Amino acid sequence: MRIYDDTFSGQKIYPxxxxxxxxxxxxxxRFQNGKSESLFLQRKNPRRISWTVLFRRQHRKGISEExxxxxxxxxxxxxxxxxxxxxxxxxxxRSMRPxxxxxxxxxxxxxxxxxxxxxxxxKKAEKAKKASAAAKGQAQRSIQSKQGSKGAQVRVAANTR
Length: 161
Description:
Layout: E1 4-5, E2 12-13, E3 19-22, E4 28-31, H1 34-41, H2 53-58, H3 87-95, H4 98-140, H5 146-149
Antiparallel strand pairs: 1-2, 3-4
Organism: Sporothrix stenoceras
Family: Belongs to the eukaryotic ribosomal protein eL24 family.
Keywords: Ribonucleoprotein, Ribosomal protein
């Protein structure tokens, strides 16, 4: 006993039932009833007709008893070391008392500020040195253009017309 599937609806066709349609290119189509044959001949898309197997499969209808609901994975928290500090140092700082932590932070900030101030002082001294050297050189040299003082190339006078 051979059972065929309906070409349009996807339902089963038992022996003695259904219609057979052979197209001009010899392709065989089997239909359960006139309804599915008519819709096929109207070139309807079975995925858009709600009672067909293709529609139900596409829209996931009637499969709840087969497949249980998917379980979502729980996120696992893990700690990783940051570039500047290892995991041990991070844990140690977390377990510190707030007062001790604040004191350490203040000490670090003051150290950073003092380093910055020192670097600024050195920078100012360099600038003053350059300015005094430039002032001495300015007296000797002729007046220079703004672009020339910035380091632009000197324009060569043309010697042809």
